[in-house]
C-alpha cells in the first residue's frame, strides 16, 4: 500500500487532478482555477504559504522571465498571506487578467 501511495504522489498533476479551465467570479474580482495540491505561494522570493486544495481562487496573472517560471498567478494562501503561485502550478490561466 505504501508503494501505491508513493507512486500516486509522483504522478503528474494531470493524472491525479481534473483540470477545469479557470472560471470567473466577477462579483468578487477573482477566478477559480485548478492548481497542483500544496502549491507554494511566494512573495519577494520568500515562501509565505501554500494552497492545499487543487481548486482555488486567483486574482490576476503576471508575465515575467525567471528561473522559477515565466508566469506568476496572484492569490491568497491558505494562511491568509498574499503572493504568487508559479504559472506551471496553475492550469489553464489564459483567461486571467493582467496584474
Describe the structure.
A 7-stranded antiparallel β-sheet has the order 1-2-5-6-7-3-4, with no helix packed on it. 13% of the residues lie in helices and 39% in strands. It has helices at residues 2-10, 13-16; strands at residues 23-25, 30-34, 39-43, 46-51, 55-63, 71-76, 82-86. With 99 residues, it is mainly beta.
Give the arrangement of secondary structure elements.
Layout lengths: L1 H9 L2 H4 L6 E3 L4 E5 L4 E5 L2 E6 L3 E9 L7 E6 L5 E5 L13
Antiparallel strand pairs: 1-2, 2-5, 3-4, 3-7, 5-6, 6-7
What is the averaged pLDDT score?
82
What can be said about the biggest beta sheet?
7 strands, antiparallel
Q: How far apart are the termini?
A: 44 Å
Radius of gyration: 14 Å
Strand order of the largest sheet: 1-2-5-6-7-3-4
| Poorly predicted sequence stretches spanning 5 or more consecutive residues | 1-14
Which band does the percent of strand residues land in? 35-45%
How many DSSP-defined strands? 7
Briefly, what is this?
With 99 residues, the protein is mainly beta. It contains two helices and seven strands.
Keywords:
99 residues; mainly beta; seven-stranded antiparallel sheet; 2 helices; 7 strands; 13% helix; 39% strand; globular; disordered N terminus
